[in-house]
């Protein structure tokens, strides 16, 4: 038995995907502003303050304001959009991926109730799922962890959908397993996974290797989701080769390895 709304879905596409949510009468799905694509007649769309989750409703006005304040501090929207089937029979609403990559469905009931995801990964979820903000506890991780500094916390027992760039891989880490990852490639992980950073040793590695200064260190046990193309890397490449920006003069030179050291975009 779920406390969150039970929704059905189907994902379409390969590189630029969309997810179609099927709602029974009275069911609701919530989404970040800007993710909506289309909906059938009989679905009511409303902008709501917060995510409409049970936790937020029980927290009263103060709880809503504190939750909204956290989202404002990290550049998130304090409002979300709720789509409710107010008609007869099943109705469908669709959400589209913002850039090339994959949409990943997460059944929070089967994943222990909580997932920590990178900022901007959330696309939509069944009503009742709480979409909050989690800050990294370690100072070093917060300062140098790139996209891993501020995480979105998805809590509940319903379905949630996140989007990430390029190819998405899910890995199950055992209690003794350690994975070293580019900081921008971490999409999400279970709270049981320990997230930390490690300085890349060797001056030649970070000066001429074209990578960032730090690894993300993921220690099991638990599941992690990784992306092959972080949006920050994609954006930097587009700017780099844009006709308006011109060809980077340091490309192919010693200076080429010094660009964007902290975020791993120094090609």
Strand order of the largest sheet: 5-6-3-10-13-8
Please identify the top-level CATH class: Alpha Beta
How are helices and strands ordered from N to C? EEEEEHHEEEEEEHEEEEEEHEEH
Total helices: the number is 5
Gross morphology: globular
Distance between the termini: 50 Å
Radius of gyration: 20 Å
Q: What is the count of β-strands?
A: 19
Q: Can you put this structure into words, describing what you see?
A:
- The protein is an alpha+beta fold and 267 residues long.
- It has one domain (8-258): Double-stranded beta-helix (4-Layer Sandwich), CATH 3.60.160.10.
- The protein has five helices and 19 strands.
- The protein has helices spanning 54-58, 60-73, 139-144, 203-208, 231-240, and strands at 8-12, 18-23, 28-31, 36-39, 43-49, 79-85, 91-96, 101-107, 114-118, 122-126, 130-135, 150-155, 159-165, 168-173, 178-182, 186-189, 194-199, 214-219, 222-227.
- The strands form four sheets. It has a six-stranded antiparallel beta sheet, with no helix packed on it. A six-stranded antiparallel beta sheet has the order 11-12-9-16-19-14.
- Residues 139-148 and 248-259 have low confidence and may be disordered.
Question: What's the gist of this structure?
Answer:
It contains 5 helices and 19 strands.
